From TrEMBL, chain A:
The keyword Oxidoreductase applies. Keywords: 4Fe-4S, Homeobox, Iron, Iron-sulfur, Metal-binding, Oxidoreductase. The gene is hoxU_4. This is NAD-reducing hydrogenase HoxS subunit gamma. Its EC number is 1.12.1.2. It comes from mine drainage metagenome. Residues 77-116 form the 4Fe-4S His(Cys)3-ligated-type domain. Its cofactor is [4Fe-4S] cluster. It is an enzyme of class 1 (oxidoreductase). One of its GO terms (cellular component) is membrane. GO terms for biological process: ATP synthesis coupled electron transport. One of its GO terms (molecular function) is 4 iron, 4 sulfur cluster binding. Residues 1-77 form the 2Fe-2S ferredoxin-type domain.
Length: 250, 621
């Protein structure tokens, strides 16, 4: 671990095979991100983690770390881009934070606050996305889906179940479940599945526990998401399989 | 001049016309048919897209039951099948009519009057665009450029191209549909596709016999072929202009259990149709180039990825492959050279422009959604099935054969210093002689305009919507990687055209074709489309123009691939040269809300049957 690259002017060590994001997080340095999760292969779709590498903009979660790279992240130019991307996600779905049970634990909301996104900015697209409440213990509220594919990846790679998939193309892209009826109740999903824990927003929700932690006492109510970087820093599962980056399940 | 007529298959959807939505009679013969299909594709999930295409040709759509049955046979989740099928715009998971009509919606089709013709057809068949008729007989919609810009307006009926639409032809089509005439009995003339070659050069005028070059290349060996191609200065003809020799060399040197050659015939850039002509006229040269590449990189298997819009070319191309196999130009021990084994499989696309991006194309070849991969690694080291893969454009393979045949030194004398050889240009739009023109690189825009009989030209869109809009002051600019790089599209607009509408058409194209993987492109192209529509509807303000500039910055810097990165180009280029055509549509206000209050009342008006002045909101200025 001798080699380093520069991140906003200070050195970050890395191991061969690590991406810029992985090395930065391991070193306790925060780069805003949404679709990246330490337990899964980098996806590179949300683009929130866009940084400048030697002057060129790239997604840091998929950019292989190399010795001597000059990486810029905490600069206004990039934060302006990130604000626009967060605004796009808010405009794309139907997000009503005050009535959302994920409020305070939502990564999209936390990023919005942290990046000082004061308004959606863009015209809302108001997509029609019916709920799936068919399952006795789990609710799917597709209105909040940001298409990060974390549940798709978790269900396939960890749970070995392939409960979720993406359908459609472009702006019509949406989450579907793997059942002939198209209903979650006809899948083999379980509350203990990894796919239940990874949703960064409020799509996949266990029923009847929504407000067991009061608003005001939730994760991002305490400190902004960027200030929790060090808590998340290794972002690796501990011996008991718990991941600091995941929301706990009941 | 080559002519291609195509009337290949009949829709069998008639059998199921009386069944309710999404249900088919899936009896023993259906089971047997599906078994045979899956077997023919060797039970490989990587053949999924090809199977789905065949299922759709058989049933007219992809029935729910078949998805379940297919998932079981392939041991894959059914959601994966739905996920793939829903990505491609020609595939339908619900019945979409026995006759599925898609009007090509490129700006050149519109300039030739496609919109009123589509309205006429909708009117006569009592149908709204995008909807299926009550009797499940027909649906009418639009699709991205079908590559018939030199003989438009054009449409696709069940993925077969019909060209030269006019009032009479539309009436005849309506008549045939009403009478449920099988496609096989429609007049052959409708399906005629002309090559329209107007100017030939070293490629279109070549006199090489099939196998001639290959015979000479055998003695050279892979390394020497790569060196010769490098020395020739040949660069990819798909637009990006990467050195073909370097690509082949990297692929050759890459470690892998297999190496693959892929010909990118997913010619989707609106306004481009040169590959259509090459595949019709020079198929042998294309396959010879692929075989040469196989020799150079050490591949035993090749794919030609043919865009779904060129479905009619499938059988003629397969006939050429068959002939080449018979002549020992493909197969095992090619030209009696032990160990030189190579064969080519044709894969069809199904209406997804993004699959022209090489890594998306590879995903599609693997039977997946056509989403561009994260790079690195690049296809030359990790391509098809993660093996070293050389992906080149149709024209590049042809040029590679010619470069080797002529010799590097001779080849370099054609064209310019950094752009060796010739280039096929697909000329369409406002001119007397649209068609294919072959020029040495370095030809000026003005020269092409003169040759094709263009007068009063306002602007030329070079290399399609993601390319460059060239205004009159720049007509001395030259095609080539030094100045105007191009995949070959050359759309001409005379002074009767509104360049704002041209840009708006292109913006709609990008929004329709965005794969939806990354946030900026998925959402940004839709917002851009709405902003352009807002300006077109007379609600635009200067704020909207600054919004476009903001969107451009986000799209250009954060998009996953070239589609998103270039989606704002048409707007920015036309804004630069033709700002008044935007400004004269703007309101004097600094800001006007995007929400259209009067438009939102349209449904209420429809329900109450009112359309009088009192049922409209007057705008407040």
């Amino acid at each position: 671990m001798n080699e380093t690259f520069q991140l906003d002017g200070s050195a970050v060590p890395f191991e061969p095979g690590q991406t810029v994001m992985q090395a930065a997080l391991a070193a306790g340095r925060y780069i805003p991100h949404l679709c990246y999760h330490p337990e899964f292969k980098p996806h590179g779709s949300c683009k929130l983690c866009t940084v400048k590498v030697n002057g060129r903009t790239v997604a840091s979660c998929t950019m292989p770390a190399e010795g001597g790279l000059d990486v810029e992240s905490e600069i206004e130019e990039l934060n302006a881009l990130r604000r626009s991307l967060v605004q796009m996600l808010f405009a794309e779905g139907n997000h009503f934070c005050p009535s959302c049970e994920k409020s305070g634990n939502c990564v999209l909301q936390a990023l919005g606050y942290d990046l000082e996104v004061h308004a959606t900015g863009f015209r809302h697209l108001y997509p029609d996305r019916p709920l799936d409440a068919s399952h006795p213990d789990i609710l799917l509220d597709f209105n909040r889906c940001i298409l990060c594919e974390l549940c798709v990846r978790a269900s396939s790679e960890v749970d070995g179940k392939n409960v979720f998939a993406l359908s459609g193309r472009g702006i019509t892209k949406h989450l579907i479940v793997n059942a002939e009826s198209g209903k979650l109740s006809d899948t083999n999903i379980a509350l203990t599945d990894k796919a239940m824990q990874v949703c960064p927003v409020g799509v996949i929700l266990p029923k009847r526990v929504g407000f067991s932690v009061s608003i005001g006492e939730r994760r991002y109510d305490q400190r902004p998401i960027s200030a929790q970087a060090l808590d998340d820093a290794p972002r690796q599962t501990d011996a008991s399989g718990n991941c600091a980056a995941c929301e706990g399940t009941p | 001049m080559g002519v291609n007529c195509h009337r290949t298959f009949r829709s069998r959807a008639n059998d199921n016309a009386m069944l309710p939505d999404n249900e088919i009679r899936f009896d023993a013969s259906g089971q047997a048919w599906l078994d045979q299909l899956v077997q023919r594709h060797q039970n490989r999930a990587s053949q999924l897209l090809q199977m789905l295409r065949e299922i759709q040709e058989h049933y007219g759509h992809i029935p729910h039951q078949i998805v379940t049955e297919l998932a079981q046979r392939l041991c894959i989740p059914r959601a994966r099948i739905e996920s793939v099928a829903s990505f491609y715009s020609f595939l339908h998971l619900k019945p979409h009519g026995e006759y599925r009509i898609l009007f090509s919606d490129n700006i050149t089709d519109r300039m030739l009057g496609s919109q009123p013709l589509m309205e006429l057809m909708c009117q006569q068949l009592w149908l709204q665009p995008g909807k299926v008729s009550e009797d499940s007989l027909v649906s009418i919609g639009t699709t991205s450029c079908t590559g018939m810009c030199d003989q438009g307006p054009a449409l696709l009926v069940n993925e077969l191209a019909i060209t030269n639409l006019n009032h009479q032809r539309v009436q005849e089509i309506v008549h045939l549909i009403r009478n449920r005439t099988p496609l096989g009995d429609w007049p052959a003339d409708f399906f005629r596709v002309e090559d329209n070659i107007r100017r030939s050069g070293l490629l279109l005028g070549n006199a090489l016999a099939p196998g001639e070059l290959l015979r000479n290349a055998l003695s050279l060996g892979g390394t020497n072929i790569v060196e010769s191609i490098k020395a020739s200065g040949l660069r990819g003809r798909g637009g990006a202009g990467f050195s073909t020799g370097l690509k082949w060399e990297a692929c050759r040197n890459a470690q892998g259990s297999e190496h693959y050659v892929v010909c990118n015939a997913d010619e989707g850039e609106p306004g481009t149709f040169k590959d259509r002509v090459l595949l019709n006229q020079q198929a042998d040269l294309v396959f010879e180039g692929m075989t040469l590449c196989a020799l150079a990189v050490g591949a035993r298997k090749g794919f030609l990825y043919l865009r779904g819009e060129y479905r009619y070319l499938l059988e003629p191309l397969q006939a050429v492959l068959q002939r080449r196999r018979a002549n020992k130009l493909l197969g095992t021990s090619i030209l009696a050279q032990a160990g030189f084994d190579f064969d080519i499989e044709i894969h069809l696309g199904a209406g997804a422009y993004i699959c022209g991006e090489e890594s998306a194309l590879i995903e599609s070849l693997e039977g997946k959604r056509g989403v561009p991969r994260n790079r690195p690694p690049f296809p030359v080291t990790h391509g098809y099935l993660q093996q070293p893969t050389a992906v080149d454009n149709v024209e590049t393979f042809c040029q590679a054969v010619l470069a080797l045949h002529m010799g590097a030194e001779q080849y370099r004398t054609i064209g310019t210093a950094k752009s060796a050889g010739s280039k096929l240009v697909s000329v369409s739009g406002d001119c007397q002689r649209p068609g294919i023109y072959e020029y040495p690189f370095g030809v000026s825009v003005r020269e092409i305009l003169q040759d094709c009989g263009a007068v009063n030209t306002l602007a030329v869109q070079v290399s399609g919507p993601s390319g460059i809009c060239v205004a009159e002051s720049e007509f001395d600019r030259r095609l080539g990687f030094e100045d105007l790089p191009t995949a070959g599209a050359f759309m001409i607009f005379d002074d009767s055209r509104d360049l704002f509408e041209v840009a708006r058409n292109f913006v709609h194209f990008f929004a329709h074709e965005s794969c939806g993987f990354c946030t900026p492109c998925r959402v940004g192209t839709s917002i851009l489309k709405q902003t352009m529509d807002k300006i077109a509807a007379g609600h635009g303000t200067r704020y909207d123009l600054s919004e476009i500039e903001n969107l451009d910055r986000v799209l250009q810097t954060t998009s996953h691939c070239g589609l998103g990165r270039t989606a704002c180009n048409p707007v920015l280029h036309t804004l630069k040269h033709f700002r008044p055509s935007y400004e004269n549509k703007l309101k004097s206000l600094m800001f006007s809300p995007a929400f259209d209050l009067d438009g939102s009342l349209a449904r209420a008006r429809q329900m109450t049957g009112r359309d009088d002045a009192g049922a409209h909101l007057r705008e407040i200025e």
